[in-house]
Amino acid sequence: MIKLENLTKYFGQSAVVKKASAEFEKGKVTSIIGPNGAGKSTLLSMASRLVGKDEGQVFIDCKEIAEWDSKELAKRLAVLRQANSITMRFTVREMISFGRFPYSQGKLTEQDQIIINQAIEYLDLVAIQHKYLDELSGGQRQLAFIAMVIAQDTDYVFLDEPLNNLDIKHSLQIMRNVGRLAREMNKAVVVVIHDINFAACYSDKIIALKKGQIVVQGDVESVIQADVLESIYETPFNIIERDGKRMCTYY
């Protein structure tokens, strides 16, 4: 389990995240929602040591994150950031192989190749594994990046806005695979996401931020409520149920 205790981050005199506490459990998908500027990505960055925290603690399996050796941390926690600009020309397979770097340090073993093959097959990328990333659609590239995270083979996976600029087909494909990662591979998957309906359909737990504070967290039923969402987003919501899933409509 990853446990966050009173995480706080200041930019200048302003606290962009204030005393945020939460837990990320293996086998579950946790979505982080909230308006733009709420502190979602900053919270995830502090939880993964990509950004330093000003106050509070992060515990990974009961050990404070500052005490983890970087190489060992990379074997426990994988992070896919919001912006992934690649300047060099790589094939899908070459990109996915970077996920094995914490183990192989660039010298791929037979076992590394087996895990890379498994990640490629898991996301159905066999047919395009030798294509270059610049030859792919945005959705295909994003699947390749997620396959790289799968190849890293960590207990904890952080995905910062993985659906940005994707069409509905690739968004669905990614969210379904996010669920599989948690339930079939017993990983704790944490997703920063703007689409509330995707969060409602594919999450086990939702954390909502507003102005740097966690204002509500819990299961889908307790968070996806019209009055709760209206207080977070300051806009009217209507909640409907379809096939046992809660969905939001706006008006």
Unreliable stretches (pLDDT < 50, length at least 5) are none
Compute the separation of the termini in Å.
39 Å
Biggest sheet architecture: 6 strands, mixed
Count of individual domains: 2
Structural class: alpha/beta
Strand order of the largest sheet: 6-7-8-3-9-10
Order of helices and strands: EEEHEEHEHHHHEHEHEEHHEE
Report the radius of gyration as a whole number of Å: 18 Å
Q: Kindly report the oligomeric state of this protein.
A: single chain
Fourth-level CATH superfamily of the largest domain: P-loop containing nucleotide triphosphate hydrolases
Brief descriptors of the model:
2 domains, 4-stranded antiparallel beta sheet, globular, 35% helix, single chain, 6-stranded mixed beta sheet, 251 residues, Rossmann fold, alpha/beta
Report what the structure shows.
- The protein is an alpha/beta fold.
- The protein has 2 domains: 2-76 and 155-249, Rossmann fold (3-Layer(aba) Sandwich), CATH 3.40.50; 84-153, no CATH class.
- The chain has 10 helices and 12 strands.
- The strands form 3 sheets. The chain has a 6-stranded mixed β-sheet, with helices on both faces. Strands 2-1-4-5 form a 4-stranded antiparallel β-sheet. Strands 11-12 form a two-stranded antiparallel ribbon.
- Strand 1 and strand 2 form a beta hairpin.
- Helix 5 (110-122) crosses helix 6 and helix 6 (138-152) runs parallel beside helix 7.
State the gist of this model.
This protein is of the alpha/beta class and 251 residues long.
